[in-house]
Amino acid sequence: MKRCSTCNRTYTDPALSFCIDDGTPLTPVESDDDTTVVRPRSNEGEDWNAVAYQPPTYVQPGTHDKRRRAWPWIVGIVGAFLLGILALSVAAIIMVPRLMRQRQNPRVQIGNANRIENLPTPRPEETNSNSNVTEHVDTPPPTDRQQVLTQLTDLENEWTVANINADKKKLDRILADDYAGQESEEGGLQSKADYLRTIKPNTQIDKWQFSDLHLTLAGDRATLAGTVTFTAQERSVVFDFTDKFVWRDGRWQATGSVVKSRQNSGTDL
Length: 269
Known about the structure:
Helix 4 runs antiparallel to helix 5 (168-174). The N and C termini lie far apart (143 Å). The protein is built from 6 helices and 9 strands; from the N terminus they run E-E-E-H-H-H-H-H-E-E-H-E-E-E-E. Among the domains are: 1-49, no CATH class; 137-265, Nuclear Transport Factor 2, Chain: A, CATH 3.10.450. It has helices at 44-47, 63-68, 70-113, 145-165, 168-174, 192-198, and strands at 2-4, 10-11, 26-28, 180-184, 187-191, 207-218, 221-232, 235-248, 251-261. By secondary structure, the chain is of the alpha+beta class.
């Protein structure tokens, strides 16, 4: 038995340690003192307004963190979108000039092709017939006149292009080492070394055309005579030429050249 020192109430419930009225700690008393036993009144439970029990609200771990961390995803998506636009812009800046140059290249090629648009077109089986592809040192000279005429005509065109561009490497291949050609219309001979030393580019010529070609073939020697017409700025000049060739090292090489202009054809280029 326990007693409240404030209100003198006693309690038999051994589980109570405090007075239910004023909360004073209970003190133990002798169990045989029954005169002061106080039992709880029947309506005592109604006078005590205990707060109803409410279970704690359960919050799932990480809920607030997920809400707070949503913005990095938004920033990442926007950043990736901006980087994609930047990459496309850089690619466009790089590719557009290249595409423009590719579109301009055919015009340049057409402009260069105007110089040789009137040249005879060789047959497919005779293309590059005098080039390194079919060149063999021990190859005998061709005997077919039409084949030789085609080969020398192609070589004349290569020779003309090399002269216009002053391509000394090409001229060194076309001219034989013992080349001796006409230096000028007044006369004089010009060696291969002199030819390569004095050659200069000629940017005035737009196109040319060979005509009236005549071939003389004798074994490994050939002579090609004819007319070549050069056109520059709507003016033309005609030359009569005679070029000599020798079959050496598996290809035709020029050994001599004589050129004379026709006085009634126009102004010299």
